[in-house]
Design brief:
Layout (H helix, E strand, L loop, with lengths): L2 E5 L2 E4 L4 E8 L3 E11 L6 E7 L4 E3 L7 E5 L5 E6 L8 E11 L5 E4 L3 E6 L1
Parallel strand pairs: 2-11
Antiparallel strand pairs: 1-3, 3-8, 4-5, 4-9, 5-6, 7-8, 9-10, 9-11
């Protein structure tokens, strides 16, 4: 079965940059869509950005122009480049993906989350 492994979280100062990564492990994994959600304490988990295997991207309004999502050609890895970070971006960032171990059917997967903290 597929597992999502995240990396790249950490502590940065406001205005700084950070890149988080998510890799889907398994046999011959291909993902139809991959994305990033975030959740701050006491808040709901919301979509930050997503990308499909055809290259379509969507961004939450507050991050548009600052964050860039991309997917590897193998369709099993997603990246989120975060620039001009603000304290309001502080949250646990979760990877989410719809993937299949070809030729099996697609399933929805969640990563364990990686903490991003932006200090002022």
């Amino acid at each position: 079965q597929v597992q999502l492994v995240e990396s790249g979280g950490g502590l940065v100062q406001a205005g700084g940059s950070l890149k988080v990564s998510c890799a889907a492990s398994g046999n011959h994994v291909s993902c139809k869509t991959m994305g990033w959600y975030r959740q701050a304490p006491g808040k709901q988990r919301d979509l930050v950005a997503s990308i499909t295997d055809s290259g379509r991207t969507d961004y939450e309004d507050s991050v548009q122009g600052r964050f860039t999502i991309s997917m590897a050609n193998a369709k099993n890895t997603v990246y989120l480049q975060m620039n001009s970070l603000k304290p309001e971006d502080t949250a646990v960032y979760y990877c989410n993906a719809i993937c299949a171990e070809v030729p099996r059917f697609d399933h929805v997967y969640w990563g364990q989350g990686t903490q991003v903290t932006v200090s002022s």
